[in-house]
Write a structure and sequence with these properties.
single chain, 65% helix, 0% strand
Length: 290
């Protein structure tokens, strides 16, 4: 008897065209092949954007990520979930994109910052899965992720979007080298987010979860957020735990039932259900307020 996961889905995905079938490929990866990895890595993708003062500082000034951290987390997850699960061209997907664009339009956000955030959503999950996933992604899966976020970026009105994964990675790395720096506002937003993260776990483990989260941060991100450096042992243990999880998952049967972000227990703000058009903040666009 064969032990471990089958690569049957991977073989099926590799027969698809990422330029055309990118939504189908990314949906399989997001709900069946790597749901936990993608949920975690997208959270860390958003987290790393805080270290850019023009982004983290704006989030701090709104007060939303500190006063209503749980709701902001839930709204972000549910909007992205509607887009990825229902489809970029679906009614729900387009409504979610409109809601996201309306929120962004309430603030003066540069195209460079928007393009950088988009790059983190491409690059961070791919690097995470390469390091900690139960298998590496194929080039078809990587190219599909690029096409998916290029399409989303165009719907968001972002200009000069990179065309390949390598260019997305170069953009993200260069932007962080130029813009990451300590700022008390960005640290406050990061602290609020980490505090929320710990509440997803039983109280006896929350201190360890907080330390673990800081230990796995890229060193330049940790320094920009002014967190203390973990010991070599703590960092090695934390990264090793993630790699061990990937090896264990590789031994388990393939997931049969899709896992959707909207069904996670950590989504707590809408026990009675929600409407996509009511998610997020509701302010006038910046142009109308000026």
């Amino acid at each position: 008897m064969r032990i471990g996961r089958s690569h049957r889905r991977l073989h099926e995905l590799e027969r698809l065209d990422p330029a055309v079938d990118y939504e189908r490929i990314t949906r399989v990866d997001g709900t069946l092949e790597f749901p936990w990895d993608l949920q975690q890595s997208l959270s860390f993708a958003l987290f790393r954007t805080y270290a850019v003062p023009s982004i983290g500082g704006l989030l701090h000034e709104t007060g939303e990520f500190e006063r209503r951290t749980q709701k902001r987390h839930d709204d972000t997850v549910l909007i992205l979930d509607a887009i990825s699960t229902d489809g970029l061209e679906s009614a729900n997907g387009r409504e979610a994109v409109r809601r996201m664009n309306r929120m962004h339009g309430s603030y003066d956000i540069s195209n460079d910052d928007m393009r950088y955030v988009l790059s983190t959503f491409v690059v961070t999950p791919i690097r995470w899965i390469a390091g900690f996933g139960w298998r590496r992604q194929s080039r078809v899966e990587i190219d599909a992720a690029v096409e998916y976020y290029r399409r989303l970026g165009r719907l968001m009105g972002i200009r000069d979007i990179p065309e390949t994964y390598e260019r997305f990675a170069d953009l993200m790395d260069a932007y962080e080298r130029e813009h990451f720096r300590p700022d008390p506002r960005t640290r406050a937003v990061a602290d609020a987010t980490l505090d929320l993260l710990t509440t997803f776990y039983p109280k006896p483990f929350r201190g360890a979860v907080h330390a673990f989260s800081i230990a796995i941060l890229d060193p330049h991100l940790r320094e920009a957020l002014d967190y203390p450096a973990p010991s070599r042992f703590a960092r090695g243990l934390s990264l090793g735990a993630l790699r061990l999880r990937g090896r264990v998952v590789a031994l388990l049967p393939a997931r049969r039932r899709p896992q959707y972000a909207r069904d996670l227990k950590r989504i707590r703000s809408y026990p009675g259900g929600y409407l996509i058009e009511r998610l997020g903040t509701h302010l006038e666009p910046a142009a109308e307020r000026s």
